[in-house]
UniProtKB/TrEMBL annotation:
This is Beta-mannosidase B. The lineage of its organism: Eukaryota, Fungi, Dikarya, Ascomycota, Pezizomycotina. Belongs to the glycosyl hydrolase 2 family. Beta-mannosidase B subfamily. It comes from Corynespora cassiicola Philippines. Coiled coil: none annotated. Pathway: Glycan metabolism; N-glycan degradation.
Amino acid sequence: MALIAASFLPMADGIHHMAMKAPRKLQLRKEPITPLLVTNNCPEVIYPGIGTQSGDGPAENGFKLEPGETRNQTVSEDWQGRVWGRTNCSFNDEGTGPSAGRGKACRTGDCNGVVNCIVGGDVPVSLAEFTLDAGDGHTYYDISLVDGYNIPMAIVLQPLQNVSLDDIPPNLVNPSCEGTVGLLRGQDYDPYPEFPEFLRTNTSYPLTFERKVDDNQASRWCPWDLQQEPPEKPGDGVYPYPDDNIERPAFNPCFSACAKNNKPEDCCTGKYNSPSACKPSLYSKNVKAVCPDAYSYAFDDQTSTFIIPSGAGFEVIFCPGARSTNILATESEKMRQLSQTGHVSKDNNGQSKMAERIKRDVFRRSNAARATRLDRTVLLVTLVTALHPRPSLSRHGPESSLTRNPAARGATNYLDGAPTASTAPANPRSDPQSIMAKALAVHTLTEGWSFKQADESGEDAWLSVARVPTNVHLDLIDHGKIPDPFLGFNELKAEWVADKAWTYKVRLPNGEPPQDGTVTVLAFDGLDTFATVKLNGDVILQSDNMFIPHRVDVTKQLKSESENVLEIDFASARLEAIKIREAHPEHTWVGFNGDMARLAVRKAQYHWGWDWGPILNTCGPWREVRLETYQSRISDLRVDYQLDDNLKSVSGTITTQVEGPSAKTVTFEVHSGDDLVFKESADVSQGIAKVEFHVNNPQLWYPHGYGDQPLYKVTATVSADGVDLHQATRRTGFRKGELVQRPDEIGKTFYFRINGVDVFCGGSDWIPADSFTPRVSEDRYRKWLEMMVDGYQVMIRIWGGGIWEEDVFYELCDELGVLVWQDFMFGCGNYPAFPEILESIRKECIANVGRLRHHPSIVIYAGNNEDYQVQESFGLTYDYEDKDPENWLKTDFPARYIYEKLLPEVVYAESPHVPYHPGSPWGDGLRTSNTTIGDMHQWNVWHGTQEKYQIFDTLGGRFNSEFGMEAFPHIDTIKYYCTDPTQLYPQSHMIDFHNKADGHERRIATYLVENFRTQTDLEAFIHLTQLSQAEALMFGYRGWRRQWGQKRFCGGALVWQLNDCWPVTSWSIVDYFQRKKPAYYAMRRVLAPVAVAVKRAHFDWSVVHARVPKTSDYELWVASSQPTELTATVELRFISVSTGKEIKDKIVKKDIKIAANGTTDVAAGTIDNVNEEAHVLAARIWIDGEIVSRDVDWPQPLKYLDFEDRGVQVTRQGNTIAISARKPTKGLVFEERTGVLVHDSAIDVVPGDSQVIKVRGLGSNDAPLKWTYLGKT
């Protein structure tokens, strides 16, 4: 098969190719070798923008392109993304903002005013869209005007010496759209005499052009009201105004009808969500006349998408010249033949059976599908639509989902805590006017909102809201009412927001008068936090818990003859918390971090500030709001199962809870990929339908590195009288997860076993990825979690002071094989337990555990974060032997009732297959610092007694769920928030303000002074703090992983923390902008599937007055997570620090057996510190002739060593960097450049062992990566 037209090939069950998410096998990464050329043939400068939806994008996402200039970049073979052009741009010298200081930098296509785009382009904008590998062996691409039109463009295929692509006639694959007057050539224009290879075609294979449009039509095709800047005209009371005699500008960007109006009939949403109901608008018709091959509206796939075999590169050309092509309509027969035979036959009478079948299918694509996943909600009317995209980071955040068109924010999403929802077409034989079973209809209330400060009056007080979900800080930033709190000292300038009340309102869409048995519900997935909801002035809901979803029946309150207004008042959570605290003087309000009044409020606790985050107390509709109409719906879909002892079969029950009297039957299906493995129906009885199921030889779900992550799709469809009313879907995986706690010679084990395989859980703790979570996109979540997988991290712990995470977070963990430790949302405090808050907590936890129960990635629920440590620190009552819960409520530590009664009951009822642990840390009621039982937070490095990090491994327990070391972020991150250049020094006020840790100055100073020679230059200082962090985490992980192999003495270690919620100096190993710190790479090396380790015995130089011991013992070992025994060669060399020469014979152990999933001791010896010069121990291991791991142990402390003249050589060789050194070199770090990935950094280099670093995203003409090492001058 060579080429397939869109009208002959089904596209992912009707979803536009930009919504496709081909399964990505992380162990088989696609390389960034596909050319993506961008050429500017326009007479003016263009700033291209590039957005990556998946895969690895180019090195630069935005740049200046002079007339006639081409920029050549590369993307991965599985890249999915868009290219657009920005016009009339004016940036500041750094390219970090508009030259005017605020607003937009470009007239069209602007991406938050910066050169290097991190968000999608503002509408109106012409788009070139690509899905290079959809997982089916094909590449999909198109020119899209669904977001509007700004400049002409063409897409030109580059075959790359691919035989199957070379055979495709080039005039079938290179579309062009030319809709700008002055650039459009005449109707009979032939480009080939002047340009013999126009758009890589020629006279043998000439392009088919559209021949009807003339200059007059080209100047007037954009409907008057959709012009970006329509000319002034007299207001004659007629709309749309006739504009026959008004001259338009030559450059005339045009909104699409959907982008401008966001009406259901234009965006094909709501009741218009089908090709029969949603017809092409005037805009769409005009687009197809001017650019026949361009995609013009939601149901336009058949005449707009080009599909070829994978393997091509592409060139995007702005202002290609000539005229628009008309390929898909005029060359359909050739495409049909190519789809069947690979060549064009002279016989054009043949018919393709596949084409006939596909023609009967209806395909839909819309903006709503463009930044989404295919496995979530589907809304079926007569077609399938994609899930509403996750909120973007487009407002003052570091990254955005690609779609910013209003239509992209109007599709269906999940229903509160219930499963994903869909509806199906009504029976076509039924009379639509009669009272009949009616499918669920959903209108997501994303656009059209406004907000104001509650105590301000007048219509001018109301300000627009860009989108919901949102919070008030984002909306105030949008309107310039507060500066970006992440910059400089601006956090202080935003404090007043928390003490005000705020009101949001929106006009609801008009609906039909209710039919008998039909219910209309307002669904609120999350209101932050003290919310009074009014419909047409009447209070319909009061909420005081941001984690509880609400559903309100408003059938009787809605007016069918007039508009309906939804209004939500948000009181100040900070002030309400203080009121509650003052109303309960009997409670002991103590804890760590923030105002202790926060304990009274069911709200993200980090909003009160933490030792890594700002005080930004938010409010607003932080999750989705929907209007739903239905006669029956599935409110819950639950799968309970059990694997047999030999893991060869799985049996269980699938249960639905059904609302509405219309429901008669529920049909259940279980799919494994495309294979149907189970199907059964059950009648609805008292709102319940339930079936038993059995699957032989199930595919089992494993964490990454231990097996695959197959996911089964479980679907329930409720119907009545032959009409499918509602469908709910869960993706789940079958696995047997155990928390193994059994007595041993030390105390009691604490580790996880999945499907009979013991798993060492090296990983990270997770905090919310932003202070303003509505702007965290799916793509940003994916990048965080893929970083973990690439770093060999197996587990992530969702910390209890943040939020119950978005569905997409857990879906990605399921997909990528990341185990989840889920805290309940309690952190660092003595929480009250009066009746009202207990009931609120119960509802919150039932809703969220029920929402998450199907995720195979979740392997433990923990009751809180450090609340038992608060109990210990403040001497609160905790008698572990007292087992009467009513007694606990009478003590000064009533929260025990929550952690040891309420929460375990919820988990047992809602998710009984997941173990429950009362807190983190906690161990059978003993001191939380006990190292023999339970989990522990080891903070005696950094906090506490401030032990040397070289002994981290001796301080751990059975499972180290927190430990860490602070480090400065990347210099570019500091320059982002440090708005005063005079403050760019290590101890400046502004830099200190962006470090919230108590006593951070003395703690950082302690660890730097103990270990390194002092540096005062900012970048050198940053390197030292980062090297200190990398060393600390390495010493901990390396030793604890060894203990794993020693009878499972240590079951895992989770570093505090993976991420940041704002630009800050903290314990994170990757900063807010996803720039990795050296510690990330140090962890990656010690957590690798096979890791060699060497360590000399520690001596405390501070205690012995810097006296070096006469001898030091050393040990050499190998840790392996592999399931089978390996054969390896291990080498240990002894290399002088000062000369780089080996001071004695190396040790080589050949053909040694490396134990499976454990630790193997290789060698031990003694160093003569009196007669031997200072030297490193350099270890390597080979398996099957390949070096798989290195480790270098250094004399401590490093400050005593001279690192002058290391003889380091760093040489770029294509997509690799070769590194060598004449003398042992410590901590060689590469810069973290946006768009460039290195597979290793912060490395130690020794003579005779050159290392090769793989690099992606660094163009051949790009500047080399900067690098440094300890002691470099």
